[in-house]
Specification:
The complex is a heterodimer. By secondary structure, chain A is an alpha/beta fold. Chain A contains 10 helices and 6 strands, in the order H-E-E-E-H-E-H-E-H-E-H-H-H-H-H-H. Classes of the chains: A alpha/beta, B alpha/beta.
Chain lengths: 293, 156
Amino acid sequence: MNTTTAIQDKARELLSGGQVTCVIGYEVGPRGRTRPAFVTRADDVARLVWNQECTHNLTTYLRDRLRPKGHGQTAEPPGRVAVVVKPCDSRAIHVLLAENQFQRDQVYLIGVACEGIRQGAGSGQVTDAWQRRCQACAERLPVVYDTLIGEPPEVGQVSDPWGADLARLEAMTPAERASFWLSQFDRCIRCYACRQACPMCNCPTCLYERDDSLWVAMRIAPDEKRAFHLGRAYHLAGRCIGCDECERVCPMNIPISLLNRKLASEMEAAFGFRAGLAPVLSPITTTLGGEEV
Amino acid sequence: MYEPKIVGFLCTWCSYSGADLAGVSRLKSPWNLRAVRVPCSGRVAPELILRAFDEGADGVLVLGCHIGECHYDTGNHRTAKRLPVLHSLMAFAGLEPERLRLDWVSASEGERFARIVNEFTQTVRALGPCTWRQRNPIPLMEPLPDTLEAEAGGQP
């Protein structure tokens, strides 16, 4: 039985049994591009697919799906939601659980053993190369799931696709690095696609989109765009699970993943911490003893 | 002669009193420091520090209570863990990390306050003016500088 059929069977079982109100998975759209799908009826499960273009991190959609409907005392609790998670996406579940964004019993995780995602997935121009995150991926099984679909694939040679770029940047002088980043950030149009695609960017009001904020303006000036990107990278320190969706959705091709990878390696060096391997908080939000207060 | 602009975020419970003590003790400390009184060093969000540099500061000094003496018990724990991460981010983004310093000064340590401000001012003066501030948009007509990927010969 292939992965697509297994996902469809599981979704049919969950929806017809009333265990979940919605299954978030992947479907192939009319133009042949794989895209997220929200299936709420058991009759529709045939839409669901699994292929090597399932690049989206579907845990991003949980923040809207699991928000109570309405306000105050009349608020209805949200229904349970099933979501298809790749190994990288499953790490986001751990971070969100640690941050109390939802409870474990509110989600049903359909874990998929993943052999990798192709470059260009979601854009309509798919190549044969694996995405960079897949070249660096050593864990091909989800870290948390309710049901596992697929056999653990063989992990080939794991490389460090960011190493060369990071080394080149670190060899520059501070002034050269500053002008490199400024030229990258200057392309930013502040569309906030990176923020919307990110499962960790879940503040109800973004600090960088407030009109009453005193220290981060919404102007499209180079330093404001730099403040936004550096601030966002900082907010993701110890939380970013490295799905690189922010970089994929960026219409201006800003190398956001370099910032995130750099901070992830700093967190690993300073605290021996990698985000999402267990449901624990980022070390920079806790006390020196490690406990939350 | 070049004189650096330094923004100091001082915790009101210890470092700000320490600065007061340095003043009433008539200790000499450089006038380069613009003191900003904050309720706790944990209040100093990284956005504030980046904003200070964006607005033309040459150095930022964050002073808080010694670990274990925080008025709010653990506010300075967070600062102690956060600022090293901001240091490495600043360095990676091209801003010399020496321009940001975190230290601890209690209310009774006027002398220590004066010494730290002196040291830090000398460090920043030696680094020279900060080129971080960038107000003018890069002209649209100018070709964009090559990205890393393009320089590497189009390798993805």
